[in-house]
């Protein structure tokens, strides 16, 4: 596989992204490595090709933002909004992720080996997120579609105002948000969790997860839901 | 002898100012339903507005241009600060962001066609970009909203400019609603929601909080678009001076200020009428902010919220706006609040349909119901046929043309060869309030409240 290396001690983020916005047929199957990222923001954003990107260190905000098709690996930790609005492909954070990880992702898979901050999976629209550690408060807020697997614990108000996204949690949940509820794990759920854990390279018993989904009491605006909206 | 109370005949029918019939109706309804009202369009209360300003046409001390023949340029360029491809418009009158969902696909197509014919831009809304509007619009501004409904990188790349919406004049600080009757399968699919649910839009963006984050978000969008497309930042008018400064610091190419008269598809009435400041007050603050940063001319200002006429536009430009955006006026050009609608080659009365909503033409604000009697704000398969793209486009085109003719007529009368040369010195105010807000002298005096 042909490899291209960008050293951010010398090259700019602009040059990295410009290269990654090249014709998909020229990028397909190539390996692009970004060394000395030093927490730079907006690395590998808007990629639209099946290219492999390795960020060899910590990334700043929005690493892999709006990704389509690419596989992006962050060897260190990632800042706010990693893989935000991802459409397809995969983003894998080997360290921790800050706030809003996977926000409004429509597709693809986001894997975070460590913990994720506040609002992980907020406004999720079809993507899958697997967090090896714990997630902060207000995670999956208004999540509309897609799945989240949380291997550790969850903070306050998990799944607040949830729509059709489904959450699976292995550890403790400090509190559920409005309209989120625990539901029975079906065989299909167990299978889903098993597949997502496998895709993320994590080894847990799928039966040890609990399912959280929307009670759908806020789908229609009415006076009975006083102060819940 | 027993004293009888005295009744004065006229006073028996005197309405209370504080508890007038509207207020009593509000309390009765609230007491019955336990739910606040949601409605469409904008503030109905009277607030200081461009109506309260007048132009000082040329006379002996100023030399006018011949009203119909002499050149008066209207070309408008937006996004000159960072974007490689700024937006170049023939006229400074743009079409404001309105969602597919709130409006039908026919309406979006009509707006796009008219904007293209007149050399101006139109704007998407909450709910994403439709093929119809992209196809019909030469210049299309793509909104990035807190909900991120339908937001995707392909449309980012297809857009001509990106508008990050922080807030809306009708509801600064609040998210909107799209009630279930308008969430048909196509709208639902674009928003990744179940059809028929009452959809609530978030009030905050999911992946950034505050101006420091916004700076990085803007840079992300610039990176994704290879620094080609202008980035607009739209704010609802509240603390406008500070908001504009922060938007400029965050890297906006263009700032859009939407005053409290701005419309909405569906928002709480208490919000529409009580949150935000009038457009007139906001323009002054926005221009002050740009001047304070020495960014006037580098960052362009678009003003919206209750702009209806060419005179309104001329006044906004004279106060320092580079362009305006119009939403409700465009809907009215398409037939909103008209007695009739045009279908199958003829006009038909919409009176029965207005009556079914408990209203009539001239008073209707029932965009939220999806039962628009003239087919503008609906997803109903029958009602939406009441606006056809061709006829709708013709009307919007004529409206835009009229606005531009009025604008240039006034500019010429003020001696300007370019509408962008209109200036505050051309204006006076009719009321003390307008003089203070716009910071122009009260007519016939040199008094600017708070300044002179």
Automatic annotation (TrEMBL), chain A:
GO terms for molecular function: oxidoreductase activity. This is Glutamate synthase [NADPH] GlxC chain. Signal peptide: none annotated. CDD domains: GXGXG. SUPFAM superfamilies: Alpha subunit of glutamate synthase, C-terminal domain. It comes from Caballeronia sordidicola. It comes from the Bacteria.
Automatic annotation (TrEMBL), chain B:
GO terms for molecular function: glutamate synthase activity. It holds the Pfam family Glu_synthase. The keyword Oxidoreductase applies. The keyword Oxidoreductase applies. InterPro entries: Aldolase_TIM, GltB, GltB_archl_type, Glu_synthdom. One of its GO terms (biological process) is glutamate biosynthetic process. Residues 82-337, 363-416 form the Glutamate synthase domain. Belongs to the glutamate synthase family. This is Glutamate synthase [NADPH] large chain. It comes from Caballeronia sordidicola (Burkholderia sordidicola). The lineage of its organism: Bacteria, Pseudomonadati, Pseudomonadota, Betaproteobacteria, Burkholderiales.
């Amino acid at each position: 596989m042909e490899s291209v290396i960008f050293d951010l001690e010398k090259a700019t983020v602009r040059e990295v992204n410009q290269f990654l916005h090249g014709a998909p047929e020229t990028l397909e199957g190539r390996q692009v490595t970004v060394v000395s990222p030093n927490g730079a923001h907006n690395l590998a954003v808007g990629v639209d090709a099946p290219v492999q990107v390795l960020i060899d260190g910590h990334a700043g905000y929005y690493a892999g933002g709006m990704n389509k098709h690419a596989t992006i690996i962050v060897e260190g930790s990632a800042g706010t909004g990693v893989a935000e609005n991802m459409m397809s492909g995969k983003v894998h954070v080997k360290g921790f992720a800050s706030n809003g990880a996977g926000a409004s992702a429509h597709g693809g898979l986001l894997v975070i080996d460590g913990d994720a901050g506040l609002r992980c999976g907020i406004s999720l629209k079809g993507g899958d997120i697997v967090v090896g550690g714990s997630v902060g408060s207000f995670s999956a807020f208004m999540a509309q579609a897609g799945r989240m697997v949380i291997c550790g614990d969850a903070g306050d108000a998990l799944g607040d105002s949830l729509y059709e996204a489904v959450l699976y949690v292995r550890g403790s949940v400090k509190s559920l948000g409005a309209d989120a509820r625990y539901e029975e794990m079906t065989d299909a759920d167990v299978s889903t969790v098993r597949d997502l854990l496998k895709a993320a390279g994590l080894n847990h018993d799928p039966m040890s997860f609990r399912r959280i989904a929307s009670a759908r009491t806020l789908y229609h605006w009415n006076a009975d839901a006083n102060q819940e909206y | 002898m027993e004293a009888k109370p005295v009744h004065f005949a006229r006073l028996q029918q005197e309405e209370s100012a504080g508890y007038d019939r509207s207020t009593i109706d509000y309390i009765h309804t609230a007491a019955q339903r336990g739910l606040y009202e949601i409605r469409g369009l904008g503030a109905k209360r009277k607030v200081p507005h461009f109506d309260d300003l007048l132009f000082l046409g040329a006379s002996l001390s100023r030399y006018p241009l011949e009203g119909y023949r002499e050149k008066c340029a209207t070309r408008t360029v937006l996004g000159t600060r960072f974007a490689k491809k700024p937006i170049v418009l023939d006229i400074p009158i743009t079409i404001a962001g309105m969602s597919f969902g709130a409006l039908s696909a026919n309406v979006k197509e009509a707006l796009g066609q008219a904007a293209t014919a007149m050399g101006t831009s139109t704007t998407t809304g909450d709910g994403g970009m439709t093929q119809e509007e992209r196809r019909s619009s030469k210049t299309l501004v793509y909104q990035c909203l807190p909900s991120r409904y339908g937001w995707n990188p392909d449309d980012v790349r297809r857009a001509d400019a990106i508008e990050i919406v922080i807030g809306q004049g009708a509801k600064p600080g609040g998210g909107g609603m799209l009630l279930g009757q308008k969430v048909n399968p196509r709208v639902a699919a674009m928003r990744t929601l179940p059809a028929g649910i009452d959809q609530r839009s978030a009030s905050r963006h999911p992946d950034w909080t505050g101006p420091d984050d916004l700076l990085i978000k803007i840079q992300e969008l610039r990176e994704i678009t290879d620094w080609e497309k202008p980035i607009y930042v739209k704010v609802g008018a509240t603390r406008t001076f500070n908001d504009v400064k922060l938007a400029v610091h965050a890297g906006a190419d263009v700032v859009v200020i939407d005053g409290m008269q701005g419309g909405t598809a569906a928002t709480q009435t208490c919000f529409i009428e009580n949150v935000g400041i009038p457009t007139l007050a906001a323009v002054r603050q926005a221009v002050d902010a740009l001047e304070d940063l020495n960014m006037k001319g580098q960052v362009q200002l678009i003003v919206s919220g209750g702009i209806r006429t060419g005179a309104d536009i001329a006044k906004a430009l004279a106060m320092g706006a580079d362009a305006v955006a119009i939403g409700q006026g465009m809907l009215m050009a398409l037939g909103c609040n008209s007695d009739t609608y045009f279908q199958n080659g003829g006009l038909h009365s919409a009176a029965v349909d207005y009556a079914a909503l408990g209203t009539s033409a001239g008073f209707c604000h029932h965009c939220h119901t999806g039962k628009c009697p003239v087919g503008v704000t609906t997803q109903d398969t029958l009602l939406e046929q009441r606006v056809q793209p061709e006829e709708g486009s013709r009307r919007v085109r004529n409206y835009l043309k009229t606005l531009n003719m009025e604008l240039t007529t006034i500019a010429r009368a003020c001696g300007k060869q370019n509408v962008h040369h209109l200036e505050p010195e051309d204006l006076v105010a009719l009321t003390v309030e307008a003089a203070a807000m716009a910071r122009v002298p009260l007519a016939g005096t040199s008094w600017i409240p708070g300044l002179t």
